[in-house]
Amino acid sequence: METLQSLKKELFRCIHCKACMFSFSGEPDREGIGEYKGTLYEGMIEGCPSGTYYRLWEGYLNSGRMWILRSILEGNLEPNESVRDLIFPCPTCGNCQAQCENKLPTVDLIEAARAACVDAGVPLPPKTAALGKYVSQLNNPYGEKHEERTKWLGETKVKPKKDAGIAYFVGCTASYRQKQVAKATAELLNKLGVEFAVLEDEVCCGSPLFRTGQRKEAKRVMNENLKNFKDYDTLLFSCAGCYRTIRVDYPKFSGSKLPFTPKHTLEFVAELIDQGKLKFKGNYKKKVTWHDPCHLMRHIALDVEREDLAKSKNWFVDEREIKKRKDEWYELPRKILRAIPGIELVEMYRIKEDSWCCGAGGGVKTQYPEFALWTALERVKEAEATGAEAIVTSCPFCIRNLGDAVAAGGSKLEVVELLEVLNQVL
Ligand code: SF4
Ligand code: SF4
Fold first, then answer.
1. Which of 80, 238, 248, 289 is most buried (most C-beta within 10 Å)?
2. How close is the Cα of 52 to the center of ligand 2, in Å?
3. What is the CATH number of domain 287-425?
4. CA nearest neighbour of 197 among 166, 153, 235
5. 22, 23, 66, 96: residue to mutate for ligand 2 pocket, most atoms within 8 A of CB
């Protein structure tokens, strides 16, 4: 299991260059909102939501956080409430990790530092602690009744099959809050003639707990899900957080390979397009922009990169091969959108590896709602600048936070789940 101590060698590669606070469009001729001009940072744009929101005070930038963790490991600082208040307001978006030329696993480091605070007995921020309490009592972080987890199914005509080879892992947000995502997924699978199970025994994947250092309870739900889903060949996901957690964290924290193949609906649909099995009956005549959910797009691309780097002792690897694999991953949703008749896809300034976060993840929406909303408002402004009519994405948590920002900012943009779009044209 990754502890701060076990990541020491990785942490000490940090040279405090601060490159991790920026992102880029990748297109030098394209000017972004807020791009630096006439300074040393010409052409760069801020990419770290927490550092930017907290006015570039370095304790809230990744470079400062890495220095704090270094002080802890050098014995100059104890995990305490001041450390906690600097490392928890971060949605673990991973932009810093994507920008770092020294390839620091910054998200793992922040999460390990949060766990170190918990282990040292530092009290968690109150609403963050409530997430753990609700999951331990009710198996979801929303304080809802476990027996109502599959209630959304009654609002569809779908009849899941418990003995199918595929199970749909719905997740807490789609089960209790963004039910349209769960319904759209089930209805789409039904339309495609895919038999699948939905389990009443499904419990929280543990994502909010792994992200906030509450590892004991996270491992309890992990073991429960591994037991309940072990007989399925494939687990399908519509949630970015659940997919990332089960694909990346479960093998790491259980020490074993997954007993099933995890697959996000993006991968599933893209495969059907490649096989020529998706027949469109209608069209979706809208100009749309795509928002890359951090935990689905960037986190998985970074995981792919780490897998490839781990194959070489000295990291003497063909970077072009890694880039190709990462690009293929980032292209999945774009391939689907371009295949939908009528759609015009217009890209935002910060996309793919450089994408700006929606602001909801890592326990931020619960504990620091103003920061989460500000981050989403920034993304909505960026989406509006493209002239799009809708933001399409594939994560119930992004949909929730971007939807809140659209309402708060009086934007006319729609925020739509990609599967809802597909349901309209298939
Ligand atoms: S984490 Fe990487 S990019 Fe950020 S300051 Fe350290 S070395 Fe530089
Ligand atoms: S994970 Fe995102 S918000 Fe947190 S320090 Fe890195 S870039 Fe900033």
1. 238
2. 10
3. 3.40.50
4. 166
5. 96
Measure CA 280 to chain center. 29
Q: In CATH, which of 3.40.50, 3.90.75, 2.60.40, 2.60.120 is domain 138-274?
A: 3.40.50
* Mean pLDDT, the chain, integer: 95
C-beta atoms surrounding 171 within 10 Å: 30
Q: Which two tokens stand for residue 31?
A: 């000017």
Provide the pLDDT for residue 28.
64
CA of 92 to the centre of ligand 2 (A): 5
Best mutation site among 7, 10, 11, 15 for ligand 1, i.e. most ligand atoms within 8 A of its Cβ?
A: 15
Q: What is the mean pLDDT of residues 166-194?
A: 96
Which residue's C-alpha comes closest to atom 8 of ligand 2? 48
Is 70 exceeded by the pLDDT of residue 26? no
Q: Classify residue 197 by its DSSP letter.
A: B
Residue with CA nearest ligand 2 atom 4: 90
> Could you tell me if 232 and 200 are in contact, meaning their C-beta atoms sit under 8 angstroms apart?
no
Per-residue pLDDT band at 66 (split at 50, 70, 90)? very high
Is the pTM value of this prediction over 0.90? yes
